[in-house]
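Assemble and predict.
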Amino acid sequence: MEKDVKKNLESLLFVAEKPVSVKELANVTSFMVSEVQTALNELEKEYENRGIRLIRKGEYFSIVTAPECGEIICKYLNEELRHDLSQAALETLAVITYKQPLTRVEIEEIRGVNSDQTLRSLLVRGLICEIGRKETIGRPILYGTTMEFIQYFGLLKEDELPRFDELKLFREEDEAS
Amino acid sequence: MYKVELEKFAGPLDLLLQLIENEKLDVCELSLSKITDTYLTELKKMDKSSEELAEFVVIAAKLLYVKSKGLLPSIETAEEEQEIADLEAALLEYQKYKEAAKTFEQILEKNMRSYSRQAVPEKVILFSPPKDVNRQKLFEILAKLLAKNEIKPEEEIIKPVKFSLEEKKGEISRMIHKGKVSFTSLFKRSTTKAEIIVTFLAILEMVKQKEIVVSQNKNFADFSLSRVK
């Protein structure tokens, strides 16, 4: 009998309340990790023109609504789509995105300013999270971006963001178009 | 000198960078010395907490050094030279992240966002007693608990406090003088909730003051308290 890997994964991800790792998907379905990977890739392609998308953050996957339908969803949820991140928050988020994992002190070294408050608000909003501890004196918290960050930016995966050394180029292109 | 209108800045590096960009300069030693005065003017205008201000003052000191060096080239030392190089490097790096922040803002302005499922079916948390529990056992446990807690309900009338933390500490000290005392025995004579709380606080306080040590032989066993020798 042919294994319905895709079908099973799709229904599992549909009902999952939080992102599920490839390993977890393989464990629950008893499919091989490689089978799961292939099926996820296929699902991702199939969703390209659909109202739902498969997004990933590292090993984790989640089914979400299509970014371009954000407006409709917002209307339905009675939410505001316009972002309200402060300059400091955007800057901090940028540092974390391109340097993760890193500690608060390392963030402050780059920004040259105390970032306690900003970090706390980003944490509360779920855009960043603690992803471990640095094995050094005091074992400081290491921060990284989250799946919610990817959703907030309407991406499918983090590497859709311009590479750090292509940032300016990316913007100029965009302004020209 | 003309007045510069600045956007709100997110820190000393941000201010510095904005000043340099306003003058259409690149990040280098010369431009740092050029904008020193404007930076200091901004610093004077600032209405910030001393902690925040300190971050700005550190940079101001570095700028003043850069400027004075231009006037008196002989004061240069290797260490300070390194500091300027570091400041330049920090500015250049910070500039890139500001660039990134602008890009992020642009992405966000497209108003694209995806949502995950909203109504999460809540997992029902069930109480699961150990398998070997039966009515008889539950009854015994309850009886034991009731026997242990001979706490009289507190009366409505507010009575003057009959015990203080100091008194309780003294009491525990006396009891413990002869040797080990069990944790539960300390509460036997407590008649009210308040007294239990004060007794417990006294124990904590004495542990903190390193007057007593608390030990436990095995999990869930009673604690025993003894004097620090």
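Residues 87-176 of chain A form a domain with the Arc Repressor Mutant, subunit A fold (CATH 1.10.10.10).
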